[in-house]
Structures are given as structure tokens and as C-alpha cells.
């Protein structure tokens, strides 16, 4: 068959079932580089249609276009015969298109239940308790995990099952599965295939992307092959051979899947492990002769990953490890071993670096002359290794995340080889890698082994272990239950040893993760955990100052502390929203001062009620505009949050001085008295602040708007793929931040009583301090409004205590710094305790 030939499907076959989705003439360009070119394909109801192709062939790009995550540069999409003008995630969901992405769209900072509720329609959870509905969804994919646990605690396989549960819950008309079995064990894979067969019987069209030809034979009805962004062939699965499929995928015939194994046995032991004991490991011992590759097998979750991390020096364990006869320490392992992690998305690549930087950052000294890196030498080596591995990248300086998943994996391997290691530790090295690249990876691993360097490979694919490895250890529940060598290294023996092991019973992909003392642990892991030590510190500080000065707990002083804390509290609540989104708002301080200046022209003793009301409306209108401009600059002008809000900081401060170059415009006393109304020792405004914080907390934890806010801050890309309107969420969040700042400005107005352009600036730093004290993460996704209010109270209390103790102003800043450090240490300790 010629390389460019296309296997056509007969017209009678095409008419056999209804077309669910038809793509016609689809083109997609990234910065002028074509990812898809003139792709036309039909997906039919009640069939499984497999998409094959090498990494970078355009498979995931095509699926992202169907799911609405990407817009095509050209071409049309028809759903059930109807032209779709613009496919978006929201439109796709409304049409009944469910997608399981290669990298699951799971928000790690949300709980399992929250991940389900933020991604799925509200109607699915109506009529009965949400946790019961969610439990049924998880049961459908045999996933047993606590609904309240954070998704960050799930394994990669469990995240894939959660992603599949979300898609199946929609009862989709079209189900897209992008490499769904890449991290699943055989039991979970069989379960998934059963579910696929069930939904196909109901008329669902399943689009299935995989690199495993064996899976095509098991589950697919039709297959389409992409290469270099073009359709290279299409046929019914029964009508095409594996040889023809491979030829279409790679454009050539692969004579052999695996390179020849070591032919001459060596007596020299290159690597040995004796009595290894540690987390998930029990008395592991094995030896590896020079020139051989050893494989690690077993049912997922039985200690394989822990062993690989110990061998790479990333995890401690007792016992002895020797390289070429010399015992080496964990620190030496870190320098000697090149580790290829199974989860390239989290551990394999540095997302902020380029392709070249990701390939070389652990081997820069290899390209240095007199301590200075030679760019020419670096590029030559990178180009050479990329050529050997067939890495497809638009350029060396392209962002690493612009590459397909498989090409990212090749870059990880390139980095391992460029560092010239003493041994290679490869954890699932071909996971998500196409058939052509697998051959290159196998060949290079064999070349490394033949050079005398030990190679240890963990793989869930028994066929891969059979073809690549000279010996295999099979693990179960942290033990080595069998060691296979020579002719015994065959798929049947490997699988049999794993499933028949008497010690079997390790944590599979779907086993429960319910922790001991789950109630306390759940609280310690929650965002509100910092509120407890913060409240304790506030109380202890108050008791200490009271022991030094009896007037500290007077009604007047308590009222004064809460009144001053109210202005800071409202501004800090707004700052909390910005930080939850993964941003920051440096403009809140000058904005508060500017709004007081605006108020000083309207809310005066000689102004009418209408004018005073107009002044309040203008305060909120000005805040709305400031927040909207901040959001638009960040989302549409590509400003960073710091740059956008710093520009707003300077502009607003300038406007304040334009309006008033000196303090003037005294605030109406009646308005001040009304706002500062007192109830016992508490200002009513402070009680409003507390109520606002509680209401905001309720929204944050129990509404879709709150989950989306946290999702955007935790993982913007996953939030977008789940259908969250990220730009709108960001702009709305910054508007809410500024409106809360307006409430703080009103409180500040009553406290200073005059329009002063110099006031308010300090609230930027104070608000950030209050938010950090409250436990909100500076990286986004986690936080609490309750903690923020407590943080504002504590800061105000510290300032008040300094006065009562007769200390200088220097101590105000000293104590604030100490409090932040202490709070961070307490929170960190609580989180670590919760993790064990």
C-alpha cells in the first residue's frame, strides 16, 4: 500500500447508521504552523470510531475542536445534520458531547464532589441529595474514594476514572475518549470497555483515541488514521490489518517492535538492591547484570511507583543499593539516576520553560566551557537527540505545553539522556507515546543498557516488558513475588505471577482512600483550618495585653478595634477574591482613598439627600469601572495581574491628587453616625462584614459560581475545558473585588472624615497580609473569607496592642511579620499532619 493511500469505506457502509458528527475541510493553524489540514471525517451513532496517529499527528487538536475547546481556522462542523456556527464547551455540552481528555480536566483544589458539580448540569443533582447522585456516578466506573477529599489526593488512574464518570453522567450522544486507558490497569480497562459497549447500544457515538492497536481490535468498529495533520486512511477495523495500520501511522513498515535482547550473559553485576524497606516496600532484593534491562510488573498500586522513586533517590528507604559494586547513598542516587516519571504533566516538564530549556536544564554543565554555557554546543546536542527520538516541535524555543503529550514525553527522555546518567529509572516510559516513537524509545533504552548502564523499567504493559526486558520482577503488596529471567519473560508468566500472587491486594486504581480519623483529617485539609490557630493567636494576644493594661478590654476599645478592622476587612475580602483566582489586586489601597475623595464632593453637611445618594452611587460606579478595567487588561490586553493592577494603582493615585491636592471636603456627620451605629461593644458595620464573609463563604463552597472561581485559580486550562467561561469569571471577580473595596472605602470615609488623597495606600499591603494570615493561597484555588476577616481583626488588634503596651511604631511591622511566619508554620504543620 502506498504511503499516501487512503482506505475508503463503501457508500453502503456509510449509509448503515446515522451520522452524529460530520467534520468537513477542517484546518487549524497555530502561529501559522498547520496542525490540521483539510480533515474530513464522519462519526456515526452506535459505533466506536478509533482515531490513530503518532504524537503530533493532530488527534488531540481534532478532539479539542469537536469539544469546543479550540476553534477551527477553516471548515465546518455539523451535528446531526445541523451546522454549528461556533462550537464552544458550553455548546458541546448542550448538544450532548462528553469528553474525557488525555490530561483529565480535574481541579485538584476542589473536592471530588465539587469537581462533579462544577462540571455537570445542575439538573443532574436535583431531586435527591447531591452526594447520593455523585456516589452513583463513581459506582458506575467502580471508583471508591471519599467525596469530600481533595482531588489532588487521587492517583492519575483515579483522576481518569473520575473524568470518565463525569462524561458518562451526561448520557452523551457523542463520547470522546482521549487515551482513556493510558494509566488504567487491566481490570479498570475491562470495566471501561464494558461501559463503552453499553453506551454504544443506546446509540451513542464513541470517538476513541489510543496508541494501542490491541485495543482497536477489542472495542472499535471503524478507524481513521491521521499523520502530519492529514487523514491518511479510514476503514472498518475488520477490513484492515495491523501491518497496514502501522504503515499508515508512521509512513513506513516497522520490521520489529523491539530491538534484540542481550545475547551474551555477563557475570558482572551492574546494579543491585538488597533488603529494601520503606513506604509501600517490603524486603525488596534483586540484581541486574551488566548489559541487561530489568522490568518491574504487577497490578497497579502494589509498590512499583514507590520502588522507582526510591531507586531514583526521590524517596527514602532502608536497605542497600549498589551501583557497579559500590554502595551508594540517596544523595548519590539523585545525581547518578535519570528519572523518567510516569506523570509527565506534573513531574516531567517545567511548564514555564521552552522545549530546549526542558531538555537541558539538568545537564547544562555538559555544555559549559569555563562555567559558561555554549549555546551552539547545547543546540547541537538537543537537535541530535531530538532527531533520534523524532521529537516534533515547531521550534526549540516553543513553550513546552504547545507540544503534544507524547512529544512532551520524548523531551523528558531527551533530558534523561543528555544528563549522561549512571543509570536510567523509567516509570511507564511509553505511556501515551505513539507506536513509531515507542520503537525509538525501546532502541535507545537498549543502547544505554548495552553501554553498561543499568536500566530499570516499570510498565503496566506486559507485552512491552516481554519484548524489552531481559528479566522481570513481579510485585504484589510491596513484595517481590516472582523473578522471571530468560525464556520465562513472557506475557503469560508476567500476568499470571501478578494476578495469582498470594500477597496480592495492593491499592488498585479504584480502591477506597478513606483515611483514619477522616473527620479531623478532612478539617485539617480544608481551607478553613487556618481559622482555628488564627482565632487562638487573636485571643492569646488580647489576654496578654489585658494582663498589662486593664483598659484593653473596655467596651470603647473593643468597639474601636472592630470598627477599624471593618474597613480593612471589606478591602481584604475583595483581595481574597483576586487571590483565589490566582491573581492579585495592588490597586485596592489607592482605590479606597480615591473613593473617599470622590465622596468628599457629595456627602457633605451642606448637600441634599439626593446629592448624598448620588455620591454613594458614584462610589460604587467608580469601583465597578476600576474592577472592569483591571479584568479587561488582564484577560484581553495580556497584562499580568501585577502589571495591570499596578498601572491602575498609579493612575488612581494620580486622579486622587488631581481631584484634591490637600485634605478637604468634610463628610456629613449624620451619615458618619448612622454608618458607625453601635450595638453593644460591636459596630453594626462589623456585623455586616461578618455576615458578608459568611455569605461569601457559602457561595464559595456551595454554588457553581464559587466552584468556578476556585477552579480558575487552581487550573485555568482544566476550568476552560470543563466549560467555565474563564474570561467572564476573571472580569466578574475583579469587579467584585473593587465593589467590596468600595464598602471598605465607605468605612474609611467615616473614620478619617475628610477627602484626603494620601489616605488608603497602606491598605494594599495590609489587605494582602490579612488574606495570607487567613490561609488563602497566593497561587490561587484555595482560601477562605472567614480566615480573611480574622486576619483583619488580628492585624488591627496588633496595631492597637502596640499603643497599649507603649511600644514604638517599628513593633507594628515586626509583629505583623512574626504573625505571618507563625501562621504559615502552624498551617504547614497542620497540613503535613493531615497528609499522614
TrEMBL record:
State the InterPro entries in the record. Answer: AAA+_ATPase, ABC_carbohydrate_import_ATPase, ABC_transp_permease, ABC_transporter-like_ATP-bd, ABC_transporter-like_CS, P-loop_NTPase
- Recorded superkingdom: Bacteria
Q: Where are the transmembrane segments?
A: 529-547, 553-573, 609-629, 636-659, 679-700, 728-754, 785-807, 813-830
Against PROSITE patterns, the record matches this protein to: ABC_TRANSPORTER_1, ABC_TRANSPORTER_2
Output the CDD domains linked to this UniProt entry. ABC_Carb_Monos_I, ABC_Carb_Monos_II, TM_PBP1_transp_AraH_like
Location of this chain's protein in the cell? Cell membrane
The membrane-topology field of this record reads: Multi-pass membrane protein
Q: Which family does it belong to?
A: Belongs to the ABC transporter superfamily.
| Protein's name in the database | ATP-binding cassette domain-containing protein
Amino acid at each position: 500500500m502506498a504511503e499516501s493511500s487512503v482506505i475508503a469505506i463503501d457508500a453502503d457502509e456509510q449509509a448503515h447508521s446515522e451520522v452524529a458528527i460530520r467534520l468537513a475541510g477542517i484546518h487549524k493553524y497555530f502561529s501559522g504552523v498547520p496542525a490540521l489540514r483539510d480533515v474530513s471525517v464522519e462519526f456515526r451513532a452506535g459505533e466506536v470510531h478509533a482515531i490513530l496517529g503518532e504524537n503530533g499527528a493532530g488527534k488531540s487538536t481534532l478532539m479539542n475542536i469537536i469539544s469546543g475547546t479550540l476553534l477551527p481556522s477553516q471548515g465546518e462542523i455539523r451535528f446531526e445534520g445541523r451546522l454549528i456556527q461556533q462550537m464552544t464547551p458550553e455548546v458541546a455540552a448542550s448538544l450532548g458531547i462528553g469528553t474525557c481528555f488525555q490530561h483529565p480536566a480535574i481541579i485538584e483544589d476542589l473536592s471530588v464532589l465539587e469537581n462533579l458539580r462544577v462540571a455537570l448540569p445542575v439538573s443532574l443533582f436535583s431531586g435527591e441529595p447531591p452526594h447520593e447522585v455523585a456516589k452513583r456516578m463513581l459506582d458506575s466506573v467502580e471508583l471508591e474514594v471519599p467525596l469530600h477529599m481533595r482531588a489532588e489526593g487521587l492517583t492519575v488512574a483515579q483522576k481518569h476514572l473520575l473524568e470518565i464518570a463525569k462524561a458518562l453522567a451526561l448520557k452523551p450522544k457523542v463520547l470522546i475518549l482521549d487515551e482513556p486507558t493510558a494509566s488504567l490497569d487491566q481490570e479498570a480497562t475491562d470495566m471501561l470497555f464494558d461501559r463503552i459497549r453499553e453506551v454504544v447500544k443506546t446509540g451513542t457515538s464513541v470517538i476513541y483515541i489510543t496508541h494501542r492497536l490491541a485495543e482497536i481490535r477489542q472495542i472499535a468498529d471503524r478507524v481513521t488514521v491521521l499523520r502530519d495533520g492529514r487523514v491518511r486512511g479510514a476503514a472498518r477495523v475488520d477490513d484492515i490489518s495491523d501491518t497496514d495500520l502501522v504503515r499508515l501511522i508512521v509512513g513506513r513498515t516497522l520490521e520489529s517492535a523491539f530491538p534484540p535482547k542481550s545475547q551474551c550473559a555477563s557475570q558482572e553485576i551492574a546494579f543491585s538492591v538488597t533488603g529494601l524497606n520503606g513506604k509501600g516496600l517490603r524486603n525488596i532484593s534483586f540484581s541486574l547484570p551488566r548489559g541487561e534491562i530489568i522490568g518491574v510488573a504487577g497490578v497497579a498500586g502494589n509498590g512499583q511507583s514507590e520502588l522507582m522513586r526510591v531507586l531514583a533517590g526521590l524517596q527514602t528507604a532502608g536497605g542497600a543499593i549498589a551501583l557497579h559494586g559500590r554502595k551508594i547513598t540517596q544523595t548519590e542516587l539523585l545525581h547518578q539516576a535519570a528519572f523518567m516519571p510516569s506523570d509527565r504533566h506534573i513531574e516531567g516538564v517545567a511548564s514555564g520553560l521552552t522545549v530546549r530549556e526542558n531538555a537541558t536544564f539538568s545537564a547544562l554543565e555538559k555544555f559549559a566551557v569555563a562555567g559558561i554555557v555554549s549555546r551552539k554546543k547545547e543546540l547541537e546536542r538537543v537537535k541530535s537527540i531530538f532527531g533520534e527520538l523524532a521529537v516534533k516541535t515547531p521550534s526549540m524555543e516553543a513553550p513546552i505545553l504547545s507540544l503534544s503529550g507524547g512529544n512532551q514525553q520524548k523531551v523528558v527522555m531527551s533530558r534523561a539522556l543528555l544528563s549522561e546518567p549512571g543509570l536510567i529509572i523509567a516509570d511507564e516510559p511509553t505511556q501515551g507515546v505513539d507506536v513509531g516513537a515507542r520503537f525509538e524509545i525501546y532502541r535507545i533504552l537498549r543502547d544505554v543498557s548495552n553501554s553498561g548502564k543499568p536500566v530499570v523499567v516499570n510498565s503496566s504493559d506486559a507485552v512491552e516488558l516481554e519484548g524489552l526486558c531481559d528479566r522481570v520482577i513481579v510485585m504484589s503488596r510491596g513484595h517481590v513475588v516472582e523473578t522471571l529471567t530468560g525464556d520465562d519473560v513472557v506475557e503469560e508468566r508476567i500476568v499470571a505471577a501478578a494476578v495469582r500472587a498470594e500477597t496480592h491486594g495492593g491499592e488498585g486504581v479504584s480502591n477506597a482512600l478513606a483515611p483514619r480519623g477522616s473527620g479531623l483529617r478532612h478539617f485539617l485539609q480544608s481551607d478553613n483550618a487556618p481559622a482555628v490557630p488564627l482565632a487562638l493567636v487573636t485571643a492569646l494576644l488580647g489576654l496578654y495585653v489585658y494582663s498589662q493594661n486593664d483598659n484593653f478590654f473596655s467596651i470603647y476599645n473593643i468597639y474601636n478595634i472592630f470598627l477599624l478592622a471593618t474597613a480593612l476587612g471589606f478591602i481584604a475580602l475583595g483581595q481574597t477574591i483576586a487571590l483565589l483566582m490566582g491573581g492579585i489586586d495592588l490597586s485596592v489601597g489607592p482605590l479606597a482613598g480615591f473613593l473617599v475623595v470622590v465622596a468628599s464632593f457629595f456627602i457633605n453637611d451642606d448637600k441634599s439627600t439626593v446629592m448624598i445618594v448620588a455620591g454613594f452611587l458614584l462610589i460604587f460606579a467608580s469601583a465597578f469601572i476600576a474592577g472592569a478595567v483591571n479584568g479587561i487588561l488582564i484577560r484581553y490586553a495580556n497584562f499580568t495581574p501585577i502589571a495591570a493592577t499596578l498601572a491602575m494603582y498609579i493612575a488612581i493615585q494620580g486622579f486622587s491628587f488631581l481631584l484634591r491636592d490637600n485634605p478637604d471636603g468634610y463628610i456629613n456627620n449624620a451619615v458618619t453616625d448612622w454608618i458607625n451605629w453601635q450595638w453593644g461593644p460591636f459596630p453594626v458595620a462589623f456585623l455586616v462584614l461578618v455576615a458578608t464573609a459568611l455569605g461569601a463563604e457559602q457561595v464559595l463552597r456551595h454554588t457553581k459560581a464559587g466552584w468556578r472561581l476556585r477552579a480558575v485559580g487552581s487550573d485555568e486550562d482544566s476550568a476552560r475545558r470543563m466549560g467555565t467561561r474563564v474570561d467572564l469569571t476573571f472580569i466578574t471577580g475583579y469587579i467584585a473585588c473593587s465593589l467590596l473595596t468600595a464598602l471598605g472605602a465607605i468605612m474609611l470615609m467615616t473614620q478619617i472624615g475628610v477627602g484626603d488623597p494620601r489616605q488608603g495606600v497602606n491598605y494594599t499591603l495590609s489587605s494582602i497580609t490579612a488574606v495570607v494570615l487567613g490561609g488563602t493561597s497566593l497561587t490561587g484555588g484555595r482560601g477562605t473569607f472567614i480566615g480573611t476577616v480574622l486576619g483583619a481583626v488580628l492585624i488591627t488588634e496588633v496595631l492597637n496592642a502596640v499603643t497599649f503596651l507603649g511600644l514604638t511604631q517599628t513593633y507594628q511591622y515586626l509583629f505583623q511579620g512574626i504573625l505571618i511566619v507563625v501562621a504559615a508554620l502552624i498551617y504547614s504543620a497542620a497540613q503535613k499532619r493531615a497528609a499522614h
